[in-house]
Design a protein that fits this description.
elongated; alpha+beta; 3 helices; single chain
């Protein structure tokens, strides 16, 4: 899993809103308001978007193999659990 977390300040609200909308358009799963999950590599895409909207200092990507309570996330991406 790739977990995209961000804390983008209010002064960059426009960039934040566009970034969130792009994540939703690409079917990222919203785990929390500023935490999105995706099952595939996304670093290049997130880097591109964060640079384009000048919000890169506020974004982090975490890779993990397990998320507690992930049944809904698997269902969102129509993936089978092993």
């Amino acid at each position: 899993w790739r977990i995209v977390i961000f804390d983008i300040p209010e002064k960059d609200k426009e960039g934040r809103d566009i970034f969130v909308n792009k994540l939703k358009q690409m079917n990222f799963y919203p785990l929390q308001k500023s935490v999105f999950v995706f099952p595939y590599p996304t670093n290049d895409l997130i880097d591109f978007l964060s640079e384009a909207y000048q919000i890169s200092p506020y974004i982090r990507i975490i890779e993990t193999s397990k998320i507690e309570g992930d049944n809904e996330i698997f269902a969102h991406f129509e993936l089978q659990k092993n």
